[in-house]
Amino acid sequence: MLSAIILTSMLLISLFLTWNFLNDFAVDVFVGIDVAYDNVEEIKMLVDEVGSYINTIIIGSTGITFNMTKLDHVCQYVYDKGLYFMIFAHPINDPEELLVEDDELKKIWLMRKALSDLDSVEAMQLLISRLNKSKNNKEFLENMGKP
User: Fold this and answer.
1) Range of the domain at 29
2) How far is CA 51 from the centre of its chain?
3) Residue 48 pLDDT
């Protein structure tokens, strides 16, 4: 009788320790890939294709990381697949860039590139003449490619 109680108690203790060990399991090694696609559907296909081989996705595309809607969608999809994710935060020169749409940002970068090729006086004259022809910032950016 005493041996049955001791055996039962040892069994219960071992089950309890095993259960706690399984619940405290933590990942020590992260194996993953970097996705640098701007297309959410391509990222989803890649996650489905390699999800059984990896446990981490690194999201590194500026088209995704600077667009909160796409970023939320991709992160939720990766999370729902049971994978970890990391977001590569690209350095930005100007925090206001986060407030501008992608197409406007591209036009701003093209404008900066074009102005950097000119000397400072020519660049300011060109900028002032373009600003005088525009009613607002949106119209200014739309007219950037026009003579």
Assistant:
1) 2-87
2) 18
3) 92
